[in-house]
Amino acid sequence: MIEKASDLRRIAKYVRTRGVIGVDLEADSMFHYQEKVCLVQMASNDQTFLIDPLALKDLSPLAPVFADPGVRKVFHGADYDIRSLYRDFGIEVHSLFDTQIAARFLGFRETSLASLLKNLSGLVIEKKYQKKDWSQRPLPSAMCVYAARDACHLMELSKLFEGRLRAKGLLSCVEEECEVLSKVRPAPMEDTPFFLRFKGSGNLDSRSLAVLEALLQFRDELARKQNQPPFKIVGNIPLMEMARKKPVNEDGLKSIGRLSARQIKSLGRPLLQRISQALRLPEEVLPSYPHKPRSAYDPKVARRIKALREWRLERSKSLGVDSALTLSNAQIRSLVDTPPKDLGELQRIGGLRNWQKRLFGKEICTLLDTVG
Known about the structure:
single chain
């Protein structure tokens, strides 16, 4: 366990001499309003370190390790970790190898770390600590063991996967995908209505949107004040039900059937006040959901989409990879409106990876030319 700055500087120098390290993070998103990284696990082939950012505060000695292209950093499902390291510590990750991406290129249907380890080695990983409060101190020894093991397993998995990918000629494809992933960053805080980030809000009318926005603002204010995740104040499902049914009294809240007696007692009055305020808003100030205009149906475009999807399915089977990797739906859309006639035109289409152009470019151009 690394809790002192002098120890952090020492192990930073040590792991930088390793060719490969496994990395994992634990955070407290289930327990606090503003999530933060609570533990950084790093494993070499002979040692494992649990780095405590809550004790250290400053993790800048690790920045050169993560930036060093000569040290491969092995993560599993790295998107969240990459964003979190940058958000909390300004740390950028280079020379990333994501074992979940590798698993998808190797055709595994279940790509969680636990599923892969069970599938490949019969090893059962206990995940009961995954949603524990990692901000608690001291950390129980069982949680420390759990945290250390995940990082160690990544080392074994990456070695196995790298060999299989090289045998299939797909290692460079994974490395390119990992390079793209290493550049993700946390989404900036947007001064936009909460309902724009709420699933299902696009199906609501303007008055219901006003009610939903009022309820979401109330939930966020209370969550911030109590330092809790918003979902622990009121869940999304009861909020949506309240926006649709717009109860005006306690009996109305009870009829929704989604709020506990405790929630109705403690939150009922302010919830009803917010709903009432939204119901009194003049029509001209009600919000509206910014729906994207639907493009006119074009039978040629529809034929191209169908052809590419059928090709994608067959090509993915022949390669033994996840079909969404072969060509995503978004990439298909970028190809069908103005289909490329040759590889030169294909190169200018944004969104396609270099490995996709290299492996599939001629096939895609030929297919689209045939379909017309």
